[in-house]
Design goal:
The chain has 456 residues and is of the alpha+beta class. It has three domains: 59 residues, no CATH class; 186 residues, Thrombin, subunit H (Beta Barrel), CATH 2.40.10.120; 173 residues, Porin, CATH 2.40.160. Helices cover 15% and strands 43% of the residues. The strands form three sheets. Strands 14-15-17-18-20-21-22-23 form an eight-stranded antiparallel β-barrel. Helix 2 packs across helix 4. The longest helix is centred in the first third of the chain and has 27 residues.
């Protein structure tokens, strides 16, 4: 076995090898004057075989001793040509600041990059509901856009800008990065566009695996990287970043994935050859909320559920159904004891208009609305009191006994309702206030507050 300590010391020759070496040196010393004399006497004298020493002695001397240990060759180190270095990272930073964009719709946002002056590439999930589709650059420009190409199988969408953005496009890599080479994933941070000197959201990694359909890197890529570019050390686009696998959180997916640049090049060549995706003017969603109602010292708690429809880009139509229950109050311990249970069913239709306020870091909209509907109320009034079993027991010697008597009264009531409201949508969260007015039989005002979720 190879011992590093043995390599650091001088080689040790055995006694037999030492004697052979000494004999060889003596032969050389004897031959030296003979050769010198032959040079003075002429070329013929040199060829006299009697004056030359025996050849075997020289052959022994030139053979390396058997005890010499030759250390094994050091294994070759992999070349570091795949690392970006300082110059490469500067190229990546310049490309990321120049060509990375933020894409927003009425309900979502994501990353993208400029393919040329008038086209942007992103992941198709970012623009699957392209209402109020806009592209934002880091220097504050905001341009409207429309989807002109979508390939759900390859997970690529291409947008066409309403106005060109010259000088910001990124160049696609001509070849896929080799396994082990360094790459940088680029996303959009929450403060995108607020600090021009800040490097965009990024994750450095190396290519762990690749094929014609997918690139894998050893870096976690979150949802804010979806649709962003994967850059090589030259600042060229090596791939389009895709989100973590469905149903898995970012920390549960240690590998990042990207669609290779070759697929992006094929998609760009298909723009105009395939009809653009058909988009409808109506988008259906789902909404649910926890709500509370207050009226004349009474409180109700419950929930609502509806199917909102968004049309004409900003108008929202919401058919809704809700159930509420009366919050019980503390009973008077004095007799008779009365308890009232009430259940309220609400069905109405609301129409609202979305007013966008903020698009970053989250889409925020203000939604004033009006509505009309119907209220049904079920009321059950229970009265408890002590009842004397034998009324004549007071005049007799027998003891009196009592029992608890209960009287129940049930009733149904229904009335139409008008409502005005104001809601705030922060991405998928909804906060709302409504004033509901029941004009008959008696005018009743109901205040309602809600907190819920909406798919758009």
């Amino acid at each position: 076995m190879w011992n590093p300590a043995r390599e650091c010391s001088l080689p040790v020759f055995p006694a037999r090898g030492a004697r052979s070496l000494a004999a060889a040196l003596a032969a050389v010393l004897v031959a030296a004057p003979v050769v010198a004399r032959a040079q003075t006497q002429g070329e013929d004298a040199v060829t006299e075989p009697a004056s030359l020493p025996a050849a075997p002695a020289l052959l022994v001397a030139t053979t390396p001793p058997a005890a010499v240990v030759v250390p094994p060759a050091e294994p070759a180190r992999p070349a570091e040509s795949g690392t970006c270095g300082k110059a490469g990272l500067e190229r990546v930073a310049d490309a990321a600041r120049r060509g990375t964009v933020r894409i927003t719709t009425h309900t979502s946002w994501g990353a993208g990059f400029l393919l040329d002056d008038t086209h942007v590439v992103t992941h198709f999930h970012v623009v699957d509901r392209p209402f109020r589709l806009r592209v934002h650059t880091r220097d504050g420009l905001s341009v409207g856009a429309k989807v002109v190409f979508t390939d759900a199988f390859e997970r690529i969408s291409i947008l066409e800008l309403e106005a060109p953005l010259p000088g910001k496009a990124l160049e696609l890599a001509t070849s896929a990065p080799v396994i082990g080479s360094e790459v940088v994933a680029i996303g959009v941070p929450l403060d995108f566009g607020t600090r021009e000197d800040r490097f965009p959201a990024h994750r450095r990694g190396v290519v762990a695996d690749r094929d014609d359909e997918l690139l894998s890197i050893d870096a976690q890529v979150g949802l804010n990287y979806t649709g962003g570019p994967l850059l090589d050390c030259q600042g060229h686009v090596a791939g389009l970043l895709i989100p973590p696998p469905s149903g898995r959180a970012e920390w549960e997916s240690p590998m990042g994935h990207a669609v290779p640049a070759g697929k992006i090049r094929e998609a760009r060549a298909s723009v105009g050859k395939k009809p653009p995706p058909v988009t409808t003017n109506i988008v259906f969603g789902f909404a649910t909320a926890f709500a509370a109602q207050f009226e004349r010292g009474k409180g109700f708690v419950g929930g609502t559920m509806g199917m909102p429809m968004l049309f004409a880009d900003q108008w929202e139509f919401l058919p809704r159904f809700g159930v509420f229950g009366l919050v019980p109050t503390s009973d008077d311990p004095r007799l008779p004891i009365a308890r009232t249970d009430m259940a309220r069913i609400v069905a109405d239709m609301r129409i609202g208009y979305r007013i966008p306020l903020v698009s970053s870091p989250a889409s925020v909209s203000l939604v004033p609305s009006i509505g009309a509907g119907w209220n049904w109320e079920y009321t059950e009034e229970k009265t408890y009191n002590l009842v004397l079993d034998n009324p004549t027991c007071m005049s007799q010697t027998d003891p009196c006994s009592f029992r608890m008597g209960k009287n129940t009264k049930e009733s149904w009531a229904h009335a139409g309702a008008l409502s005005v409201g104001l809601g705030v949508h922060v991405h998928a969260l909804t906060f709302g206030y409504e004033l509901r007015v029941l004009p008959s039989p008696d005018v009743k005002f109901i205040h309602q507050v809600s907190l819920g979720l909406s798919t758009f």
